[in-house]
Amino acid sequence: MHAAFSPYTGVAVTTGLPAAGNTTLEGAGASAAAAGAETSFTVRCRDAFGNPRAVGGDVVAAKVVVGLSLVWAAAADNGDGTYTMTYVVPVTGSFKLEVMLGTTAVMGSPFTLVVSPSVTSAALSFAEGAGTPGSAGAATTFVIRPVDIHGRVPLVNSFQLYLSHF
């Protein structure tokens, strides 16, 4: 970019190298997700003076620490100093999200990531047990197995059930 009002022509001013201490995260996916759902956030690289970088090519990585396992995010270089990070955490809970620029943690990392249950799908959920199928007017016992919209059995011990009879 040309420096305004400069007596020197042909002088271009660009941002400096990326600085992890000034790099920031944007988007809800940096703090919240639904179990089994693809979630994303954006990493915005900045130089040592806080200027947003205008070019890509930086080394950015993110991982969610889920107990003894790691869920790595896929990084997409947007070519403008931002990177879209996409991940899927399969279980619910509160986890650490670690984001690195090169080998250095970005400002605020690790972050707290809260993964909530996904929406239960009535169409994918099912009943099983000795009482299926039941007979009208007869007492029966069965187990309802909820399945979320991603085809996964939620790892939570409670859900709401609404029964009605006709």
Please characterize this protein's 3D structure.
The protein is mostly beta strands and 166 residues long. The protein folds into two domains: 20-116, Sandwich (Immunoglobulin-like); 118-166, no CATH class. Helices cover 0% and strands 39% of the residues. The protein has no helices and twelve strands. It has strands at residues 24-26, 32-34, 39-44, 60-66, 69-72, 74-77, 82-87, 93-101, 104-105, 111-116, 120-128, 143-148. Strands 2, 4, 5, 8, 9 and 10 form a six-stranded mixed sheet that branches. Strand 6 and strand 7 (82-87) form a beta hairpin. The radius of gyration is 24 Å and the shape is elongated. The chain starts with 23 loop residues before the first strand and ends in an 18-residue tail after the last strand.
Give a quick precis of the structure.
It contains no helices and twelve strands. The protein has 166 residues and is mostly beta strands.
Unreliable spans:
none
The tally of structural domains comes to 2
In CATH, what is the class of the largest domain? Mainly Beta
Coarse morphology: elongated
| CATH architectural type of the largest domain | Sandwich
Order of helices and strands: EEEEEEEEEEEE
Mean of pLDDT: 85
Instruction: Please tally the β strands and state the result.
Output: 12
Give a quick account of the main beta sheet: strands, pairing sense, barrel closure.
6 strands, mixed
CATH topology of the largest domain: Immunoglobulin-like
- Overall structural class, as computed from helix and strand content, comes to mainly beta
Level of helix content?
under 10%
The N- and C-terminal alpha carbons lie at a distance of 72 Å
Q: What percent strand?
A: 35-45%
Q: What's the alpha carbon Rg, rounded to whole Å?
A: 24 Å
Tally of individual helices: 0
**CATH fourth-tier homologous superfamily of the largest domain:** Immunoglobulins
